[in-house]
Structures are given as C-alpha cells and as structure tokens.
Specification:
The complex is a heterodimer of chains A (338) and B (323).
Chain A (H helix, E strand, L loop, with lengths): L6 H19 L9 H8 L3 E5 L6 H14 L5 E4 L6 H14 L3 E4 L8 H9 L3 E5 L9 E4 L2 H15 L6 E6 L5 H16 L4 E7 L4 H14 L5 E4 L2 H13 L7 E6 L7 H5 L5 E4 L2 H18 L8 E4 L3 E3 L13 H4 L2
Parallel strand pairs in A: 1-2, 1-3, 3-4, 4-5, 5-11, 6-7, 6-8, 8-9, 9-10
Antiparallel strand pairs in A: 10-12
Helix pairs in contact in A: 3-11, 4-5, 6-7, 8-9
Chain B lengths: L7 H19 L6 H26 L7 H17 L4 H24 L5 H20 L4 E3 L14 E2 L2 E2 H19 L1 H11 L1 H6 L4 H27 L1 E3 L7 H11 L11 H20 L4 H22 L13
Antiparallel strand pairs in B: 1-4, 2-3
Helix pairs in contact in B: 1-11, 1-12, 2-6, 2-9, 2-10, 2-11, 3-4, 3-5, 3-9, 4-5, 4-9, 6-7, 7-9, 10-11
The chains are: A alpha/beta (338), B mainly alpha (323).
Chain lengths: 338, 323
Amino acid sequence: MKNSGNPTRAALAALAFTALAGPALAQQGLDEPFQKPFKEALAGKTVAYVPVAMNFDLTEGWYAGLKKELEPFGVKFVIRDANWNTNAGAQAVTSLISEKPAVMVVHNPDVQTYAKLLQRAENEGIYVIQINMGSAYRSAAFVGANWIEIGERDAEAVVKACEGKSNKIAIVQGALSAAASAYTLKGVENVLAKHPEIKVVSSQAADWDAAKAKAITQTVLKQNPDLCGIVGFWDGMDIGTAAAVKEAGLTGKVFLATSGGGERKGACELVKSGAFDLNLSYDVPTQAAQMAGTIKWLLSSGAKPGSIKGSEYTTLIPITKENADSQTSCWNLSDLKK
Amino acid sequence: MKRFRFSQQEIVFAVFALLFLVFSIFLNGFLTAENMLTLLQNVAVLGILGLAMAIVVIGRGIDISLIAALAVPPGLVLQMVQNGHSLPFSLLIAVLLTIAFGLVNGWLIAYAEVPSLFATLATGLLLAGLGQAALFQLDVVQWSAGMNGFEQLGQGTLLGIPTSIVMFAIACIVVAILLRQTRWGAYIYAIGDNPYAARVTGIPSRPIIVLQYVIAALIGCFAGLVMAASVNSMPTRVFNSTLIYDVILVVVLGGIGLSGGRGGVLNVIIGTLLIGTMLNGMTIMDISYAGQNLIKGVVLLLAVITDSFLNPRNEETAQQGDI
C-alpha cells in the first residue's frame, strides 16, 4: 500500500462526502404517482380463462404463463375448461357474463359460436381477450398466430424444397370446422396460386388426430413415392404424418412443414430427430406474456370495454435443424409451471 | 320351396367384394401388394378392438369402455417411462391396471347385475377421467428415449409384412382359439345364446362374464400399445372420438348380432376389411371429408337395409340383448 495514504483519512473523507450528498437523496423518497392506481386497478380483480380444453401444451402453457404474471398482483385467476365441447364452452361463457369477471380470456373453438356472447360480455363491461383462434367479433384484443401467414410460410418452404423434384405435394388439414385449419389452408392456396407447377395429390382433413394423419399419409406415399413435400397443420397431429414418412423410408426426402406451440418435446426434439423439417412456432410463453401485458394495460387504463379494439399477431419462430438445439427456440412446460 | 337366404355376413362380404372389384378396375394403384398392406395396416388397430368387442358381444354384452382401456394404460406406460421408470415395470403396472379395470367392469355386470351398456359407459368415463386428472401431464403423451425399441410393435415389418398387421393376425388367432377351442369359449357362446339356460346347466356364468371383460380390456390395452408404437405417442384424447362407434360398426356389420351367441373372428375380419377398403379407396381418390362421411353412411345403410329385406325380423331375431 505504497500510494494509498492513511486509511483513517480516506474513511473520514468518505464520511464527509456522504454528509454533503445526503440531504438531497436519503432524507425522503420520491413517490412514483402511477404505481398505486395500477396496483389498485389489479388487486382483487378476476380474470377468467376459457380454453377449448386443458391438458395440451398450448392451453397449459397459456394458463401457467398468465397465472405467473397476474397472481402476484392479487388477481384472481379462474378457469372454465370446455374440454373439447363447444356447448360446454358456450355455457361457461354465458355464466361468466353474469358472474362479471373483469377480463375474459377466450380460446374460440370456431368463428361463430362465441361471437355474439363475446359482444354481450363487452357490453356488460367485461374486457375480452381472444387467443390464437379468434371469433367473428373483434374484442379488446386478439393475441395469436396469423394462420394465413403460417400457411403461406409452410407452403413456401415446401415449394422451395420441391424445386427440381417431382413437384408433388400433400396437405394434411386439421378439423374442417376449425377456423385455424381453414385459414391455414387459405395461406397455402395463396402460395400455390403463384406456383402452378406444384401438383397437390392429396388434401384431406385428419381431424387433428395423429393416427388418422398417419393412415392418410401412408396411403398417399404408397401412391406417390416421389412426393417431395407435405404441409401439415399442427405438430401434435403431424407426429403421425412423420411416422408414415419414416416408415416409408423417406425421411429427408419428403419435406414436412408444420406448426405448433413450440413445446420442447412436441417441437424441437422432433425437428432434431428429423421428423419435421420446419416447425413454425407461435411461442406460447411469449403469447402468455403478451396477454398478461394486455390485461395489465386494459385494467389500468380505465378504458370502457368495447371502446378499444386491437390485435397482437404473434411473431413466429421457424424451428429448423439449425436452431432446434438452442435453449430459446423451445420452452418446457415443466419450467413454466414452476 | 326353400327361399335362398343371405346372412348379413354374406351380404357384407358381397359389398366388400364388389367395392374391391370396382376399386381394382377403376382406381389406379389400388390393387398393388403395397397398397393392400397399407390398407390392412390402417385398420389393424380397429380390427384388434373389434375382436375385444366381439368377445363381449357374443356373450350378450357390450363394452363401451374399450377406448378407455385403449388410451389410459398404454398412456400410463409412456408417461411412466418419460418420468424415468423402466419399460418392463411400466408395462407391468399398466397390465395390472387393465386387469383391475376389467375386474371392476365384470363385477358390476355379473354380480351387481348392472346392464353392461351403463356399467361400461360409467367405468370408461371414470378411467379416462382418472387418466386426465391424475396420470397424464398432457393429453398427448410423447414418446421418450426409454421406449426405444418398443416402437417395433407398430412400426417396421416382419418378413415384409408391417408389424401392426402381424399383431392383428396374432390377436385373431388367439381369440379364435379362445372362442372355438376352449371350454371357456363354448361357455361364452352358451351364455350369449341363453344366459338362463346356461346357468341352469351348471355353467359358472358369473365368473365367465367377468373373464370376458378382463380379456376385452387386455385386448384393448394391447391395441393401444400397437397404436402408440405406430404413431410414436399416445393421443389419450382418442377417448373423446367416435372410435367406439367404428368398433361397434365393425362387429355388427361383420354379422355378430347384438343379441349374442353368434359370430366369430371371421366376422370381425370381414367387417374390418370392408371399412378398410372404403377408407383406402376414398383416400386414394382424395375425396373430401364430408364426401367420405356421406359415402360411408350410404354404404352402411345399404348393407343394413339389404339385410332387413332379406332377413325380416321375427319374434326370435328381434330378441335383443341389453341394447
């Protein structure tokens, strides 16, 4: 300690400095005037969540994400599980309207069923947020994937993979009644309209069912062993599509593009194994965070329900072999639930 | 003069033969060895389930809970392996669960004398609910590394034949032996034909009824394992689907009357072949979903109407079982 001087002196100097600077900073804090109304706007409010069904990666992920974001602010989070039953869902929404939660987060089974009910809910003073599958009624916010874009990007990838090959592709749709499936198909059609050389040898609905998707794909591959690509509409169903491709020994030869919520086991692992070549992920935790942000904003804004409407389309993450290993491409449900 | 009569089995076989012929002539790529294998492969699980249902229906019952037995125990195997248990241990637990489930069904029907339709409707819901609430994290239970090798049950080939077809064939042989070669099988027919007479003659009808449901549940579980292996996951949501109607359809269409005591493995095979041929042909033709349902409905209606024309109901044949 050659040049440091006397330690006692240094301590004295520090003390003097603190004494000088003290009055301005430490004597009294500065009140941030907006946080209290924000906290009051959220505390004790009820947010109701109506998914088409629980127990699958998307709805479980949204649930966990919303709960994590909202409950610390004293928000009561309730769930009404429609369990794949459109009637049960409509009943849940109807009874919620009379229970008057502050916000309803609704996952529509189709475009029409809930539309009138959601409009009524906003008239009764409930903010309505629609998630991933919207209804014909535009409410305070829609947070979700743009299915047209998903169809277009999947189809473009398949068309590109088919260059110089047979140009024969197949489409494995979801359920015919689901808007998500119909919109995705429209996106695929948009791209195919620009590529007349592409021949669609099969375009069938597999009802979101992996076994049906496998059966259809097996038959199609036997008829068209030179198929160069398949557009699938959901990774949960396209496990079956991929199994058919693998059994035919065509993994790597048939380009399989699909989409999903980006859960690690359902998305990244399957891309890594070569089952899927492209999986467009609408990253569920980000969607949940966006919904939670929207709920905070709506509740603290004091805006009249029904007076403002907007959309937050999800930025898609294309998962391919390049990024399937990365920590950020996919998410784990078990982590989100912690 | 003796009128020439067709049984439903023959009618369905004729419809199947006709469809097969039409497709073979007009549909390019239908009548190839590869496509035939695909056709069979796609309906193998349905056929195995049909065998389970056949055993119960021959014994004058019905098992609506079959799809729960298909979904829950195999789902449990995948879930347990995913959670780090060994495959043999998981299989053992699943088989024990299946047997317990069959015993509950059988006890309710044979001893508590609840009609089989209601008993299995309730137990099926119970098992599916148990699976959803307590056993599975997600509806679709994914394949994990610990299961590797087990997919051989539903994927790949054995001597050039896809394994799921081999599994269907094995199940057919086992059930055929049970029904035709063993005393138990004879008892099942006797109970189905006339339960009261069977009891009077000293057949242990209650234990045999319990046995039927245990075997049906075990076959259901086996079908589920084949299905899971074939799609590399177990979509337990299949319980909510209309698969059970397809199974009943295969059995009834094949000619196993719901009044019990009639039919056998051959009927299940014929029913399965008809459904398989229709599905395969329509997929090759790329018919829309709505169109497929329409055609399925028309063909099935035709088969049933023809049957009721050629074999009008009388007091005896109108005697139905529980349904």
